[in-house]
Amino acid sequence: MSEELDSKRTPKGEQTRQRILQCALGLFSSRGYEETTMREIAAEAGYSPGLTYKYFASKEELVLELYQTLCKDLDAFSRGLPSGPLAERFHLNVATGLEMMAPYREALSALFRTALNPRSRVGVFSKETADIRLHARETYLRVVRGAKDAPKESQSEDLATILYGVHLAMVLFWLIDESPQTWRAGLLLAFLRDMLKLLQPILWLPPVAQALSKLAAILGPLLGDERKTALSQKPDQDDKPM
After folding, report:
1. Same-domain check for residues 49 and 81
2. Do 192 and 100 have their domain in common?
3. Does residue 225 contact residue 137 with C-beta atoms inside 8 Å?
4. 116 plus 216 within the same structural domain
5. Of 105, 98, 88, which Cα lies nearest the Cα of 147?
6. What sections of the chain are H helices per DSSP?
7. How far apart (Å, rounded) are the C-alpha atoms in residues 111 and 150?
8. If DSSP codes are grouped into helix, strand and coil, which group holds residue 225?
9. pLDDT tens readout for residues 167-195
10. Does residue 69 sit in the same domain as residue 81?
11. Which structural domain, as residue segments, surrounds residue 44?
């Protein structure tokens, strides 16, 4: 078993792994995710099914590999973000994330329905992607903490959760945007940046901060916020659904 793992870590093994992944993404784009089989991926890559399964046991593992790569790349970028206003750091982080996804936009679009299914292994909110969401939220916590106008720690935690949720919504809009060069997505992102600038002075007022904390508590379990939230306790009478 150790020899098999070592073979995947060699330069040649990594080259093979990347070729299989790129061929799979190409087939997802041209044929659709559900319609593509592992045998077709192996044939497209020029490898035997046995060798292909040695690197990826299923189509789901290929998709999870893409998710993990994109998450790691954005995390690395966020560590080098210049210090500045939170709104600008948020805008730059989301814009860069979309640029990183651009080469895979067709493949991600082909995954659209499956990715929104929480029961699918490759669902954005599935158990299998929980660690990815955890690390992605930590990226936004770094974005908030590194800003010149960062709030206090508890509010930074809440804002990181909310901004990560906005990031996911932005990705969704970007995927369905059919405008030339997705310029509508660019306009929306600029609008969100400007709204954050406009609203930031009041975000820390007690009533607003409490509302943000409640929103973060609602979204947190889905978005990798592992803090103990109010939702883990019995809801107040006023919070019960009608």
Report:
1. no
2. yes
3. yes
4. yes
5. 88
6. 2-9, 11-31, 38-45, 49-55, 59-79, 86-101, 105-110, 112-115, 130-145, 153-176, 183-203, 206-219
7. 36
8. coil
9. 999 999 999 999 999 999 999 999 999 99
10. yes
11. 12-57
